[in-house]
Amino acid sequence: MKTMITHFIKKHHLLTKQATVLVGVSGGPDSLALLHYLHSIRQEWEIRIIAVTVDHQLRGEASLEDLRYVKRFCKTWDIEFVGTSVDVPSYKKKHKLGTQLAARKLRYKFFEEQMELYNADLLMLGHHGDDQAETMLMRMVRSADSQALAGIPVKRDFATGAIVRPFLCVTKEQIWNYCEVHHIKPRLDPSNHETTYTRNYFRKHVLPLIKEKNSNIHTTIQHLSETLEADQAYLNRQAQEMVDTIVMFDKERCQVSFEIKLFKTYAFALQRRAFHLILNYLYTDLPKDLSYVHEEQFFALLHRKTGNAQLDFPSGLKVEKAYNQLKCHFQDDLHTDSYHMLLKIPGKTVLPDGSVFTTEYVDEYQEQSEQTFILQSGQAALPLHIRTRKHGDKMRWKGLQGSKKVKDIFIDAKIPRSERGTWPIITDNNGEILWLVGLKKGLLEKQADNAAFIQLNYEKGNM
């Protein structure tokens, strides 16, 4: 077994000479065998070994004795030891977590602190080939996402260095044999035999059946995990480049947006990964009730022919399609509330979103653009008002028979629903809509001969 592990370490470049290595040790067979293995190669590799043990306070005096047991082993083998006790029961209650997840969070927090304290190169953990097989089988049962099937990584970045798992090449049985040969007597956690935990159920009932067909399944699955991990790493890099190129991020509002047609030009494998990268950006922690169903809904939305539609994702995330734009955000309303104010003539009027209307008197009629509007003082009832839309708003313009609803004008112009509620509208003192800014200019009274001209200039804000 020692030869097998050393070959695995060299193949995956898991250890370098003169490294500072922290070892997560619980007192069980896996971690004690790992600690013994490292002790046996310590002089050859010139490494510094520090055993790190966490008492989770889940089994009272018994779990505290595990810590003391490891400490005695380290003293016998002349290995540095660091131990701590963490209050998992209180932490899980406070944060509403399951026992296993709460214990893992506190354990890795302590590992990270010790890595930084010792400026360690590696944290070695005793996960083995059977752990890998159990993990991948569980993920196949519970997940429909190929990215979740890569299993336990052999090596990943962590704190000041990396987490490595050199025992992924061996089985639990081989570890027990190693302990017997080297007279190592591990302490056993009774919870490992309870099938109430999903992993233990797979360990006791599922994996043994598979091993009857392939006793070397751990090697097969480890190879599968490594190839999947390599494929995923490449595709994720490509997806990140895609996201960096076409997705707009608004950190202040915690929202993203992109052009749907451009998004769909990429391969679907990259679109899927881009979707998950967007979720990871938006969510601090991915909600438990976020599933492959939401992914299916997301892509169905992209291909809908209707101009506007919305999805509600967990934790209040809104996914809005507005014609060729897709926007993801948490706010119920991305903009400020509705407004109604008088337009200063002459002068500047600043809207809640930072947009500015500048009005001035001019001597003669000038050519207009989408951002300007000119009328004579006698063509509308003063003062002029600026407001957001009201239910049933209609307007008239030259050449139109009758009037048209503002709502229909927005639809025809493909204005996103999220922008319609705060779109600026200029009216006269009688409520007649004179200018739906940037879209339509209303019907004015007949021009007077000597009346002054009023010019309105609109500059959109950046808020």
UniProtKB/TrEMBL annotation:
GO terms for cellular component: cytoplasm. This is tRNA(Ile)-lysidine synthase. ATP binds at residues 26-31. One of its GO terms (biological process) is tRNA modification. It comes from the Bacteria. Its EC number is 6.3.4.19. SMART domains: TilS_C. The lineage of its organism: Bacteria, Bacillati, Bacillota, Bacilli, Bacillales. It is found in: Cytoplasm. The N-terminal region contains the highly conserved SGGXDS motif, predicted to be a P-loop motif involved in ATP binding. Its main location: cytoplasm. The keyword ATP-binding applies. SUPFAM superfamilies: Adenine nucleotide alpha hydrolases-like, MesJ substrate recognition domain-like, PheT/TilS domain. The keyword Ligase applies. GO terms for molecular function: ATP binding; tRNA(Ile)-lysidine synthase activity. Ligates lysine onto the cytidine present at position 34 of the AUA codon-specific tRNA(Ile) that contains the anticodon CAU, in an ATP-dependent manner. Cytidine is converted to lysidine, thus changing the amino acid specificity of the tRNA from methionine to isoleucine. Gene3D superfamilies: 3.30.465.60, HUPs. Belongs to the tRNA(Ile)-lysidine synthase family. It catalyses: cytidine(34) in tRNA(Ile2) + L-lysine + ATP = lysidine(34) in tRNA(Ile2) + AMP + diphosphate + H(+). Keywords: ATP-binding, Cytoplasm, Ligase, Nucleotide-binding, tRNA processing. Residues 384-458 form the Lysidine-tRNA(Ile) synthetase C-terminal domain.
